[in-house]
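Hey, can you fold this one?
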Amino acid sequence: MVKLNLRKKYREMSAAVKTSVWFTFCQFLQRGISFITVPVFTRLLTTEEYGICNIYFTWFEVFLLFTSLKIPYEGLNNGLIRYEEDKDGYTSSVMGLIMVMTAGAMGVYLLFRRWIDPFTGLNGFLMVLMFIQLMFNPPLMLWTNRERFDFRYQKPVAVTAVSTVLNLLVTVLAVVSTSYKAEARIIGSAAVQTFFGVVFAAVLLAKGRTLFRKEYWSFALRFNLPLIFYYISQMILNQSDRILINYFQGSGKAAVYSVAYSAATLMLLVLSAVNGSFNPWMYKKLKAGDSRSVGRSASVLCLMVGAATFLVSALAPDLVRILATEAYLEAIWIIAPVSASVFFIFLYMVFANVEMYYGENSGISVISIVCSVLNIVLNIVFIPRYGYFAAGWTTLVSYILLTILHYILMRRACRRNRMTERIFREKELLAISVGVVLSSFGAMGLYRAGWLRYGALAVLAVLLFGFRKQVFQVLKQMGKGEEHAK
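Sure. Predicted structure:
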C-alpha cells in the first residue's frame, strides 16, 4: 500500500519536481561515492601520493574557473532563456568559446611552464593531462545542464551513474596495477571524464552545428566576467588551504588536511538538501508576511546543524580511522574547526537567502573577496609558524567573518525594503553559534578520554530526542513549502 502511494505521488509530480529530485540524487551519488573512495585510496596510496592527487584536483578546479568562467552553469541557463529559438546553437557556440579559452590558457602554460610547474607542485606531464581534461570537462557539463533546462533527466541520470561508477572502477584498477599510483589515480579519473567529454562534445556540435557566433560569445562573456571575482573568492575559501599547505609543508601534510576536510565536510551532503528545501519555503513565508515562522524554523535548523557539528567533531578519531590509516591520525585536530566552519556556511547561507529574496546582491562579491583575502593572509602568516593545523582555524575565522558580513547585508536589505520586523531570532542564533565554537574546543579535549566522549554523545542523543517534535514539524513544513514553490 505504501509503495502504491509513493508511485502515485511520483506520477503526479511535475516534470520540474522530478528533475529536481533526480538531479539531487545525482549530487548525492557523486559526493557519496567520492566520500566512500577516501578510505580506499588512503590505503592504496602513501600520504605523499594521496597529497599529489589532491593537489592535482585542487589545481584543476582553479584552472577550470579561468578556462570556462563557469559558463556551463549560470551563463548557459541565462543564454538559453535569451536565445530560446536557438538553444542548441547557443550551447555548441559557448562550448567553442570555452575550448578557445582553454587552448589559450594551455599556450600560456607552455610558454611559462618553467615557472608554473614549481609553483603548482605538479610535473609537466600532469599539467598537460590537466589541460586535456579541462578541454573536455565543460562539454559534459553543458550537455547535462542543457538537458536539465528542458526537464529531461533520464539520460543525464544514467550518464552520471555510469560515469561515477566507471570512474571508481577504472581508478582503483589503475592504482593496484602499477607502482606509479598517484599518476594512475589521476590518469584513470581524467580518462573517464575525457571520454564522456569527447562523446558529448560531438553530440552538442552535431545538434548546434556551430562553434562560433559573435553574439553568443559576447553575451556569455558579458554575463560571466562580472561574476569572476565572486567565483575566485569562493574558490580561494574552498581550495587555498591545500595549495598553501602543499607549498609550505609538502604534499604529505596536504594529504592529511584533505582527509580531515573530507570528514569535516561530510555534513555538506545534508546541508545542501536542507537549504534547498528551506530556501523556497522561506521565500513563500516572507511573501506571505509570516517572518515569525521563518525565525523559529531557522533557529531549530541551526540547532540541528550545530548538534551535527558537535557529532562530527566528537567522532573525529573514529572517522579518521575509518577513512584512513594511522598515518593520517593527526587529522583529528583539524576536523573540529573545519566542521564548525560548515555550521557557519549554513548560517551565512540562511542570511544570504534573504538578500537574494530582496534582490540585494551587490555586496556579496565584495564581502566574499574580503574574506578570501583574509584567509590567504592568515594562512601565509600562520601555516609556516604553527604548521598545517592552523589552516583549520583560519578557515573557521574566515567563515565567521563572512557570516557576520552577510548578517549586516541582510539587515541592510530589510531596511531598504521597509521590513521593520526582525526575521530571525538573533540572540538564539548567537547563542547557538557561540555554543558550536565552544563545543568544538570541548570535543578536542575529549579525544583522549573515550568514555567521556561517548558519554557526551549520549547526552546529545537524549537532547535531540527531546527536540524531535520541533525538528520534524519544521522539516514537514518545509517539505510542503517546497512542493508549492516548485
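Residues 481-486 have pLDDT under 50 and may be disordered. Let me know if you want another pass with a different chain boundary.
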